[in-house]
Amino acid sequence: MTSESSTWSRRAFLYGAAGACTASIALGRHHLPTSPLNGYVAESGTFGNDFNFSTGILLVTNPEAHLKRIHQLRKQHNYFNNFRFGVNDRFRFPFVRDVITAELNDPSTRFAVRVQRAFDSVFRATKVGDSYPYQLAYQDLFQRSLSLQQKVVVHDINRTSRGADHYFLDFAAPLFPNLVGFYLLHQWENDLIQLASFFTGCVHADLGNPVDPDATKTKHRLVIELKNQLGVSSFTSLANGQKFQVIQA
Question: Structure pTM?
Answer without folding.
Answer: 0.81
